[in-house]
Amino acid sequence: MATQRIKVFNSAFVRRTASILIIMAILLGLLLAFFQLYQRSLIQTLTQMNNEFVEQVDILSGTLLEIIQNSAMHTFYSGSLIKLRTVDPLTNAERIAGFRDLGNWVSSSTFLSSAMIYNSSADILYTSDGGYTRNASETYHDQATVTLMAAQERHGSRGPIRRQTEDGDTYSFLFFESNMPDRGSLLLNVQAKWYEEQLLGLSSEHNSVVVSNEGQVFVAGDASLTDKVSRIWPTLLTRFDHDSKSHGFILEPGGKSGWMYYEMTNLGGYYLRFFETGTILPGLLAVRNFVLSLLIAVTAILIGGALYILFAFYLPFKAVREALQKDRTGDETVVQQVDRLLVDKMEQRLTKQMDALLQGEELGIINYPASLILVDSSDSETIRRVVTSSTSSPALTSLISFGCAIVVSDESAEQMLELCLNIVDATGARCLYGKSRHSASELAQCYGNLSDLWQQRFLYVGQQVLSETLTNTYQSPLDFETKDTEPLFSSLRAGELDEARAIWKGIFEKIRDANYNDFRFYTRYLLKYLNTMQSELGLESLANASDLFDNLEDVADLHQLLDTIFVRIVAAHVDLRKNHLQQLASKIDERIAAGYHDGNLSAQSIADEMGLNAVYLGRLYRESTGISIGEALKRTRIEQAKRLLIETSDSVKDIASRVGFSNNKYFFVVFKELVGVTPKEFQALEKSGSQ
User: Fold this and answer.
1) Assigned CATH topology for domain 596-690
2) CATH: 2.60.40, 3.30.450, 3.30.1120, 3.40.50. Which one for 77-198?
3) d(Cα 481, Cα 305) in Å, to the nearest integer?
4) What is the pLDDT of residue 404?
5) CA 446 and chain centroid, separation
6) Which phi and psi angles does 162 have, rounded to 5°?
7) Which of 6, 309, 545, 685 is the most buried (most CB within 10 A)?
8) Position 650 pLDDT exceeds 60
């Protein structure tokens, strides 16, 4: 029978059939290669389009937010409006000035419908239409607005929030000073039509739509897009949950159309753009459809041929192989294949047993007490050899998802350490070992501890052997909360780099004793907040928290990254403060130049006009210019007096009065102090010099 089967393989029909199948397989390979080339071209085109789309939307949303924030900051820190937010009681003049400025900000804006200021310490609400309400939390007709403005967040702004107000559909933005609950808040109501038109302002097509995080359509370039979004939204949600990226694209079933998406983290919601695949590569799409049809036909033929070969040739060959295995007269190649199958089968069985054991299932194959070892290596053959030569105790060794796991019975902690050292010497891989356990459930607990310890390996750089005893330092619950990070952020805003470094050192000393999940949570929270601060300062984020922990091998890299971010934030805040001081000093200099002749002009009067404390304003001016406001005023008046002494024949007394000195003697004293001679002497010297 075997001889007849073998002769069948030598027939011309079989050779011709095999040749045809080989040719068709080559053709199928070429068709598959072409199809993959098409798919790759499509993906590359979509990726390029998506990058351009993300850049366009990023510029759009950033510009839109910057416009609103700039307007808010000018309003929020206006002197008269600061008084509305913080002072109580107000004088009638102060209230009128505040209402006037608030109304001017709204009326001069192209996008604001209204603005409101809430004085939290006095519970007073002021509106841009000139009205105000005491006990606003109880008597104001729009309690939703009062609740929103009284809310406290960790950031200095909140929005946009889409609402129905007296002005119709609006988007509301809330601004206040973080961690200062008694400094009041500002609410800007932006016209919904302007806001939504701006969101699609850079799109030259009518295929864009903006939706909320819940899938609600804010604005659509085409009405038909609303139904399309509702159909694709569940698929998009699944993509968002499984993909940490904030942008990408997704093809609808069939691949004829798809969506590009971008999460606008600074404005809230998602920017979507619909596209049709046929418009991207129309010619290649037709070729693809032809090749796909041909591919289906060739595949069907190959499947038919494979079924024919299965029944005509494989079953006889299987009978021959089984006969060879039965009487063990087969050649060495068959034996080696069988041995390999047996080894693989045994490895799979051991892995299954180990997985069940590490999940707490008792199998009756382990003698207790037993200890667990995890090795970051899949070289199970070498590890088994080391275990066998290092201990005579019963041991179970198998591959798992981590690498390799070993359960050893009746070994002390010292013997486990020695076994780990031998494994490290043989494989060069890291080794983690646990304490002795008395049940499968305890071994499962040990596996969890060692897995957590492995994830925190960056704390133990250069240490090849790690013991479960290191997890004894974990604090649960941890004596630390997110609010404990606030001093760090405050010191960065204040430009105190050394203080920020010291605070981070203290924070790290607390959270390093946490388990991995807690350590990662607080560190990712810190990085996310720092990235927000960088974004607010116009700085590009340096790292993604998820990527950092996926690749972190040395905690020094974390320290270096944070220190770099600290330096960038402090430098940005210093530059902002410097610019602010220069602008403030310029305004004071302009006021002095315009009103030096007024004898009542002084540092105090200038501070009153700007709505600031005179001492505080003087300190800021001196920090910027190196001199006091009074000194700058005296110098300006004397310079103007020198000009008048040269250009006019007025008396010294008249000139003193014209430059703002009501006391003639004091004018003489100041003039001689700054010029070195009296006004008469200066005038005489100038006239003699001109002759």
Assistant:
1) Arc Repressor Mutant, subunit A (1.10.10)
2) 3.30.450
3) 67
4) 92
5) 34
6) -80, 125
7) 545
8) yes
